[in-house]
Amino acid sequence: MKEMVEKKKERTFIGFNRNILFTGLTSFLTDTSVKMVYSVMPMFLMSLGASKTSLALIEGIAESTAALIKTLSGFWSDKIGKNKPFILIGYGISAIIIPLYSFVISPLQVLYLRFIERFGKGIRTAPRDSLIAGSVINRETGKSFGLQKAMDNSGAIVGPLAAFILLIFFPDNYRLIFLLAGIPSILSIFVIIFGIKEAKKSKESLFTKFHFKDFPRKYYLFLAIIFIFTLGNSTDALLMVKANEVGVKVAFIPLVYLITSIVSVLLAIPIGSLSDKIGKEKILVAGFLVYAIVYFGFGITGSVGTIIALFALYGLYSAATDGIQKAFVSDTIDKNKQGTGLGIYNALLGITLLPASLIAGVLYDKVNSSVPFYFGAATAAVSAILMLVYFLKYKTLNSKK
Questions:
Q1: How far, in Å, CA of 375 to CA of 295, rounded?
Q2: Of 39, 309, 30, which Cα lies nearest the Cα of 160?
Q3: What is the CATH number of domain 15-200+212-400?
């Protein structure tokens, strides 16, 4: 009861406390930087001589090799009962690395920097998500993670838009974009230092020793579904390459990708709030089906107009899955294990991205540009069916209690 009273005192506007708001602002600033880089990185890599397979492999290796850190940082934050140090170090690494992209001269150097930058993400992600889960008011996890996703994608709007404007005035000057991208990420460090407060935990509640049996069976079943889905969810870089091949000019690629972020920003909080009311499983089934439609569309279309529409629909998928999945995980496990549970979840996504990106890249280069998208559509459809079975199973079990 005392904890509830304290959380109410921390309430600011629109029902969120300061930690959720400032972690959102931190994500906004850093994602602005990252998406400035990410929206032009595929074209920059190809200008350095990288193939589609190399492009996908760089992204997959960078994400997967740092994925284990997400589990370790999540467990460590649960063990010591602190999240802020991991958040500060993780975002700090990104702030240092992002401007260094402007000095690379080979795809291999991009891989090195990408790995270090994703290593920083591995350190911060699970503790940040744990801090959000621990700062939720009235058990509105879907709404809270929806805000996080909305702020992420707000940065994903500003970042590509800034890159687009810079490319208009400085055509093909990718290095200038990388250099200027460091500014927002540096500002995020000040937000962490002065804006975020540690979510206090009692020593008695700390999760000090890991056992697989400490997590419920439904948690592991959910991870199995996510694994299947992620096998077909390769790097978004291939979406941008496909758009370029269909006829979207290089300078407009960041602007097209921007559409996804705008739709996701507009829908993330409403869909998150809806998931708190009707159940997160239902929203995830719908999200997986939308993904299947989008990827099938990318595989079959050769129209610029259709590509733009699919990028918009991709924003709906993003709003209905990314934050909802994290909220579902945090609802499924005990509060003192949320950092570890979210860390395992995030690590699974990172590890699976390597085979997913490699499969997609090889199919793109060795077969044709449509097959990797058909493969992604198929795994998403299977995941939607499994998620529906999962929902019906646990709904039946709960009704028998």
A1: 8
A2: 39
A3: 1.20.1250.20
| Higher-scoring residue by pLDDT: 48, 24 | 24
3-class SS letters over the chain: CHHHHHHHHCECCCCCEHHHHHHHHHHHHHHHHHHHHHCCHHHHHHHCCCCHHHHHHHHHHHHHHCHHHHHHHHHHHHHHCCCHHHHHHHHHHHHHHHHHHHHCCCHHHHHHHHHHHHHHHHHHHHHHHHHHHHCCCCCCHHHHHHHHHHHHHHHHHHHHHHHHHHHHHCCCCHHHHHHHCHHHHHHHHHHHHHHCCCCCCCHHHCCCCCCHHHCCHHHHHHHHHHHHHHHCCCCCHHHHHHHHHHCCCHHHHHHHHHHHHHHHHHHHHHHHHHHHHHCHHHHHHHHHHHHHHHHHHHHHCCCHHHHHHHHHHHHHHHHHHHHHHHHHHHHHCCHHHHHHHHHHHHHHHHHHHHHHHHHHHHHHHHHCCCHHHHHHHHHHHHHHHHHHHHHHHHHHHHHHC
| Single-letter residue type at 29 | L
Cα 100 to Cα 95: distance, rounded to the nearest angstrom: 10
Domain regions of the chain by residue span? 15-200+212-400
Q: What is the pLDDT of residues 62-86, one digit of tens each?
A: 766 667 787 788 888 888 888 899 9
Tell me the per-residue pLDDT of 330-378, one tens digit each, with 9 for 90 and over: 899 888 788 888 888 988 887 887 788 888 888 888 888 899 999 999 9
Q: Are 175 and 45 in contact (CB under 8 A)?
A: no
